[in-house]
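Support case: iron/sulfur cluster complex. Customer-provided input:
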Amino acid sequence: MSTTYDRAHELSHLSIHLDAQQMIERARAEGIETVWDRLRAQEPQCGYCQLGLSCRNCSMGPCRIDPFGEGPQKGVCGADGDTIVARNLGRTITGGASSHSDHGRDILEVFARVANGEASGYQIADEAKLRRIADELGLVSEGRDTNEVARDLAKELMENYGIAKNSLSFIGRVPQVRRDRWKELGITPRGIDRENVEMMHRTHMGVDNDYVNILLHALRTALSDGWGGSMIATELSDIMFGTPQPVTSEVNLGVLKLDQVNIAMHGHNPLLSDVIVAAAQDPALVELARSYGANGINVVGLCCTGNEMLMRKGVPMAGNHLMQELVMVTGALEAMVVDYQCIMPSVVDVAKCYHTQVISTSDKAKFPGATHMSFDPQRGEEIAHDIVRAAVEAFPNRNQDRVRIPVSPVRMMGGFSVEAILAALGGTAQPLIDAIAAGSIRGAVAVVGCNNPKLPQDREHIELTRTLIEHDILVLVTGCAAIANGKAGQMMPESAALAGPGLRALCEALGVPPVLHMGSCVDNSRVVQLAGALANAMGVDIDSLPLAGAAPEWYSEKAVAIGTYVVGSGITTVLGVQPPIFGSPHVVSLLADGLDAVVGAKFAVEPDPYKAALLIRRHIEAKRAALGLPFIADDQIHDDEAASRVTTTAGSARV
Ligand code: BF8
Ligand code: SF4
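Agent response - structure generated as follows:
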């Protein structure tokens, strides 16, 4: 018979947060299947696939390579393990890069309509940024009408997707010496769609069979995401919805309101969420909600749509990836409005157990069982009103007896765009460079990416981040990693108390947290942009800087694309989940070692957050030594037990 202790212990292996644990228990009690149940049902997962050694790229297959050398070593076509692993990885990166870049294109198309006066509910929110970027790209902005400048910028950026331009507009942000390196390697991204399509071509049967050549193109494809599609998404979202500035909000399931209509915005694209936030404040809709007995309309975020809304408007955040089913188990959600990416098809099944409406909005992302309300930005305002009305009308169907909102929300700060970071530093990066040079800050690490049900939710994110800040390493977060750290109370200015003395002093002087929220996953473009700016300011290449990346709990193809462009940009990255490449020792050795000689950065895999922190600290100190900065010798850096090993987030920084 299982005791309360056994149950609590088992739950803590699924998530370290009380809100998740309580809702998982409730889902079990009510017979509702969640992601953890489905993972268990899939186990043991296919070993060939885990190693990257299976191929179904053509109908002579599917094929698999025996990793023990006893069975087949070639697919039917003759492809060996190296080719198959590299091709699979190339296609994974293309899946991720295409997702970000197609999101960027959607924003760009609406931006072009705004410039032509054809979209309702949108405007240029940050004209100064529009003009700054136009000037940066050599488009004349002075003395010209805003919409004219916007039209020119839209045209310029549209050419990034094709082959007419044959280069990316934002490549000028990359230090010249890195651009030269890319050119030499033949990995300068030429066009966003071009690199993605070419990767699909190269991985067709009988095209590119040289794993090194395939992986070089994979780098180029990923770079077209980071410095192309994602950067376009970020920059145009800032121009249309406002460049983020520091803002305080709240996070976890406690942001749901017992007495209000709750709407969760889930997915990635801010085009819809921005107009929904506005519609939820419409007095007529608020009045309608009151007529049903609700005290208002409460919009909350999930995943990266949530990050977009938190960064710009301080909209509260219900949770990250693994909370998308559990948010409905509260019984308090009237509508989950989804666009695309990272939305589990299962949300529709969970919704059926409650009164929750799942409303899909993108014609490219339909969910059988959901209500589809096709989002046309030309009628943005009107559709947003229809969606909010549908949510309000679901309120009378709520069974208040089944409502259980666990825990109280935790405060978190967001809004650290590159512009906001520079402003906090007094206008230039120099104070940060000085602090790094003096050693009071050892370096900076971007902790990014997802949740993965194979790991206790958020544990790796939080423990890695906590250990890094304790050692005076500034942490930049995006995506689900940001939400994880928010829930743990590590993202308020007073969280500086958790940091080492140097980082703490800087944060206290500037009034910022030691963990800076830079946005959604497309906003990892802000991270590489900042790295490029720091390198330019110091007159070195990005790979000389004491920086690193980490994706401790990654699951998605997009995370692989991000990791790859971060490494391609010169920043060594540590993954917490093993990617499916270990079937090819050659591919592993190239990514974990050989790449360093060519792009000055490489991948490492380390699931233990304390060992990952150790690896990162040693890497950062080695970079400091090479720059001639004061450094800590390798044998002085230990996995110190001093790090307060976080096991649960309950209680910290409660409001
Ligand atoms: O783009 S971090 S689980 S929500 S893929 Fe998805 Fe991963 Fe979250 Fe945002 Ni990013
Ligand atoms: Fe098999 Fe080659 Fe076809 Fe892949 S491409 S399924 S290895 S025959």
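The longest helix spans residues 81-115.

Case will auto-close in a few days if no follow-up is received.
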